[in-house]
Design goal:
alpha/beta, Rossmann fold, six-stranded parallel sheet, 17% strand, disordered N terminus, ADP-heptose-lipopolysaccharide heptosyltransferase activity
Length: 168
């Protein structure tokens, strides 16, 4: 992997679709859609950090998504962590951006100085704000979001990322 700021043209974008505590997040399939869009962006490489309890679940969801959409995500990097937070921190340090709900991954990235895009409730932006202060506000809990809410969140997330990259 090319270290952040190391002169490489490719941007490493960590997308964290996993959260046990954040009520305001997107369904896993929606994060896979974000990953697919990032994969198609010029010079962007999507990265997902999986831990043992969800690794197979994620691969299954990814396979289902590919079968349903007939699309491939050729440059996705899946980092299989072993529950060691130091491995996650080392991975995050190599990233150019982190996209995540309000969970430990995004707060770790923020404290490491990695630019973040948070998919947060309005409340979490005040309680658990990040240094980047770039948020997609999710108006409802995951179980209450409709397809329009989800598509708006996906579009807004990608727009923020594209603007950040363009303005570097």
């Amino acid at each position: 992997m090319q270290k952040r700021g190391g002169g490489g043209n490719s941007k490493l974008i960590l997308i964290n679709p996993f959260s046990h505590t954040a009520t305001h997040t997107l369904p896993l399939e929606s994060y896979i859609e974000i990953i697919a869009h990032i994969s198609n962006m010029q010079n962007c490489i999507p990265v997902v950090a999986a831990y043992p309890q969800i690794h197979d679940y994620f691969l299954e969801a990814l396979s289902t998504w590919k079968n349903e959409t007939k699309q491939e995500i050729s440059n996705l990097i899946i980092f299989q962590n072993d529950d060691d937070i130091l491995n996650l921190a080392a991975l995050i340090e190599e990233m150019d951006y982190v996209i995540s709900p309000s969970t430990g991954t995004i707060h770790l990235a923020s404290n490491l100085g990695v630019p973040t895009i948070g998919l947060f409730s309005a409340y979490d932006t005040k309680k658990w704000g990040t240094k980047s202060k770039q948020y997609v506000i999710l108006p409802y809990e995951k179980t209450q979001m409709n397809e329009n809410d989800i598509q708006q969140a996906i579009t807004q997330t990608l727009h923020i990322l594209q603007e950040n990259i363009k303005n570097e």
